[in-house]
Amino acid sequence: MELQSDFDIKEACGVFGIFSPKEEDVASSIYYGLCSLQHRGQESCGIAVCDTKGPKGNMNAHKGMGLVSEVFKEEILENLHGNLGIGHVRYSTTGAATLSNAQPLVLNYIKGTLALAHNGNLVNTQDLRCELEKTGAIFHTTTDSEVIAYCIARERVNTHNVEEAILHTAKKIRGAYGLVIASPRKLIGVRDPLGLKPLCLGRRDTSYIIASESCALSAIGAEFIRDIRPGEIITITADGITSNCQLCQETHAHCIFEYIYFARLDSTLDGINIYDARIRAGAALAAAYPEDADLVTGVPDSGIPAAKGYSEASGIPFALAFYKNSYVGRTFIKPTQKERELSVRLKLNVLEPVVRGKRIILVDDSIVRGTTIANLIRMLKNAGAKSVHVRVSSPPFLYPCYFGTDIPSNKQLIASSHTADEICAMIGADSLGYMNTQNLQSMAGNLPLCKACFDSHYPMDITGHTADNKQ
């Protein structure tokens, strides 16, 4: 991912839930789980907990804008008591970047309390929202997550239990979702039938955990049990685990960008190790776009594994060409393009002895607008690089995503209006090679993928849903 472009691609969020029947306070475990999922969202975060032995309706929540370590201080965690809880980190794809849209959402309704955290994006939000508003619903956020929560609450009035209400709701909603839901006595995980969004199950002693990625399990010393199946609703109570697979289907479409960029290197999603997937991507690039060069390097951090794969497959030595300053703040908040460009220099600096006089292959996982990669090429050449050949481990972005990947409009996507040769000239590269769409499958083995942002083959009907719905 090109660093700090003014049009970075953003993923919706990460979710985490834990139920500890030994009545341990779980807030600190949720905190560490969310810290490990911070890469999935840096805008806001929240934790909601309850005591399953206490009175129903004792849900206690805290949310805030910023990173997990900024929002949750020790004294706040110490006041979040409960052995059941869920957490969320967010970067908005639907709904404005405001505290009111931070999650988990907590509802108090006629049947009690409900807390919900959502990763993904629905494609029929507007229809559902209008239907609810006509029957008196008053919305306090602009997110599709609140629509899901209200649907569950409405269904619960006429069902025997919350699982049945969730099943009825899941039959109504369309799109991508990984949900963790806390009712006063239950932790529930729900994954969309196509498997667009990841969700997994883990265990630590007698506690069970549901999380967006397996790295969150490792962070709290839990073992990975399995991925939650696409379409599965899993319920965890003091009596154990139950599974409902009524919505499971044979057709799946896992988001390719989890493997290209979103997921953390140490995660495994649906049987595919992320590090290995990105190594394979680099190897595919080396086969498709060979180049006579002296060294291969990657754009920190996301381009480095693919660069390593390119190096191994080509036999060209791998080296780090940039020093990354990890102590610089989040530069995407800079208000002007000039300040953004300065932020790149503050965050990355070229290691001149490494690149001087060398022909360099520079690997990144995507080019969105092209501004940042152009700056990096200029920095390398100013440091004495003879040539810079860019290789990209994803195809050109050409189409919008409706499932939770906040890809800019076509006007802002450089590849939508320029050929590869034109882009190569614009960014100042000596050559440019994108991953071929047909080679994407090499990253994820036989896993069925959603590649619609590259080839426009959407895995479901998106009629009536436009990118303009995203705020």
Automatic annotation (TrEMBL):
It catalyses: 5-phospho-beta-D-ribosylamine + L-glutamate + diphosphate = 5-phospho-alpha-D-ribose 1-diphosphate + L-glutamine + H2O. Mg(2+) binds at residues 302, 364-365. Its EC number is 2.4.2.14. Binds 1 Mg(2+) ion per subunit. Binds 1 [4Fe-4S] cluster per subunit. Its cofactor is Mg(2+); [4Fe-4S] cluster. Keywords: 4Fe-4S, Glutamine amidotransferase, Glycosyltransferase, Iron, Iron-sulfur, Magnesium, Metal-binding, Purine biosynthesis, Transferase. It comes from the Bacteria. Residues 13-239 form the Glutamine amidotransferase type-2 domain. [4Fe-4S] cluster binds at residues 255, 401, 450, 453. The active site is at residue 13. SUPFAM superfamilies: N-terminal nucleophile aminohydrolases (Ntn hydrolases) (SSF56235), PRTase-like (SSF53271). InterPro entries: GATase_2_dom, Ntn_hydrolases_N, PRTase-like, PRTase_dom, PurF, PurF_N. It is an enzyme of class 2 (transferase). Pathway: Purine metabolism; IMP biosynthesis via de novo pathway; N(1)-(5-phospho-D-ribosyl)glycinamide from 5-phospho-alpha-D-ribose 1-diphosphate: step 1/2. In the C-terminal section; belongs to the purine/pyrimidine phosphoribosyltransferase family. PANTHER family: AMIDOPHOSPHORIBOSYLTRANSFERASE (PTHR11907). Catalyzes the formation of phosphoribosylamine from phosphoribosylpyrophosphate (PRPP) and glutamine. This is Amidophosphoribosyltransferase.
